[in-house]
Write a structure and sequence with these properties.
Blueprint lengths: L1 H10 L6 H32 L3 H5 L13 H7 L2 H33 L6 H13 L4 H10 L6 H5 L6 H14 L2 H9 L4 H12 L1 H17 L2 H6 L8 H11 L12 H41 L4
Helix pairs in contact: 2-15, 4-15, 5-9, 5-12, 5-14, 9-12, 9-15, 10-11, 12-15, 14-15
Length: 305
Amino acid sequence: MEREEVLRLLHKKPKVAKADRVFEAVVYTVLAVWTLVTIYPLIYVLSCSISSPEDVYMGRVFLFPASFDLSSYAKVLGADMIWTGYANTILYVVVGTLISCALTLPAGYVLSRRDFRPRGVLMGIFLFTMYFSGGTIPTYLVVRSLGLINNMFGFILPGAMSVWNVIVVRTYMSTSIAWEIQEAAKVDGAGDFRLFLVIVLPLSMPIVAVMVLFYAVGYWNSYFNALLYLSDQSKWPLQMVLREVLIRSDSSIAGGGGGSLIDQAYMAEAIKYTTIVVSTLPILFIYPFLQRYFIKGVMIGSVKG
């Protein structure tokens, strides 16, 4: 009898207070509305990209495609400018990520060392640059004086190192790697470079992955440096091509014009949405598999130590 009573109590659903039910209903409603607000632009852009140019131009697409037409994709994917932008973006992402990680990881390591006395002063200098910069015009003058206009490194170097990412790396290395390991390596005769390359860096692979993702996504989405320092269209990244398509509304930019003026206007409107899809699909496909690394990076950065 006692056993049956215990089982009955275990399977008995706890009573939920009315206030808790109201709170849950409000929370779920807000989340549902927020989800719809977030998803709607994505669905709308995708629907416009696979609808006929005329339906897009006339505003007949509300949520789902009014018709099925891939002519805008044929135009966009047949444009040399799009593929050149893709190639440039991939090159900038690979080179820029390598340079940024090569600057950020050693800086974070140095600032995480307990025996490095000036680290407080150096951290203050880093933080100052995080809140105050020289401004766009002085930075442009420096880049021009270095001969980096219309150069790949003019796009990469001005924002090659993020102070926030340095703080994240410093926090990880100071909290996740035991100081005793580094002291033992120093006793065994390891120098600073060897200590960093052989001991600290292999133990920091999670934060290295986070930094690679942060910088790679940042370079993929970047267009402002290209807008300032790259006037040669053959060196534009994909986001600059997208910006040009959206601003100029010219079908000849991505795929060439043809037909009557009204047909060109229809196609130009559809090409806007198609170019957005083409330029964002790689990130949309990759992000779900890498989301946990982004979340881990955010959580690491939220702990100051």
